[in-house]
Specification:
With 180 residues, the protein is mostly helical. It has a domain of 87 residues: Cytochrome c-like domain (Cytochrome Bc1 Complex, Chain D, domain 2), CATH 1.10.760. Helices cover 42% and strands 0% of the residues. The protein contains seven helices and no strands. Helix 5 packs across helix 6. The chain starts with 38 loop residues before the first helix and ends in a 7-residue tail after the last helix. The model has no long low-confidence stretch (mean pLDDT 90).
């Protein structure tokens, strides 16, 4: 049983008329798990090849939590925890990456970020083999949350939220009585 009859890949054989040991794959064969017809989900682009401006699935608190975990693991060493491009690599002497808080990147469509994570950009290498597509989208959602958190204004709040904020500020500015 130690020596079994077998053929190595591309080894010649008299088994088939064309002299090969294996049959060619039928045209259009797709490996299991590799059928990716949803270009928005797997490429971040629409049918015209433009970056999508909307997420291909609903963003929930769980997606944001997952995005934060993946961002902290893969992105924060370079981009920093708050996305300003001041991560540990900069402290070690490397060139700083782009800040997510510039006007250009705040206005970029979400598909752009997905494309950069997938294919790399500048000195950033591709993460396609390291981060699954769903996690790439979760990171993009978290980057959008970072951008909102660093660039929010009071005018973004609803009237009820503004009133609540003003009430909490007034309570915080009143002197507290101390007991002897």
């Amino acid at each position: 049983m130690y020596h079994q009859p077998r053929y190595d890949p591309y080894e010649s054989s008299e088994l088939f008329e064309d002299g090969t040991s294996a049959r060619p794959l039928p045209e259009g064969t797709v490996a299991r798990g590799q059928l990716r017809v949803d270009t928005a989900l797997y490429a971040g682009k629409d049918a015209n090849g433009e970056h999508v401006s909307a997420f291909p699935f609903p963003i929930t608190a769980d997606v944001l939590t997952r995005g934060q975990q993946r961002y902290n693991a893969y992105c924060a060493p370079c981009h920093g925890l708050s996305g300003y491009g001041n991560g540990m690599i900069v402290e070690r002497g490397f060139s700083p990456p782009s800040s997510f808080h510039t006007d250009r990147l705040r206005n970029a469509p979400v598909g752009y970020y997905y494309d950069v994570i997938t294919n790399g950009f500048g000195r950033m290498y591709s993460y396609a083999s390291r981060i699954q597509p769903g996690d790439r989208w979760a990171i993009v959602a978290y980057i959008r949350a970072l951008q909102l958190s660093q660039n929010a204004s009071v005018n973004d709040l609803s009237p009820e939220e503004r009133q609540q904020l003003q009430g909490s500020q007034q309570q915080g500015s009143q002197p507290q009585e101390t007991q002897p």
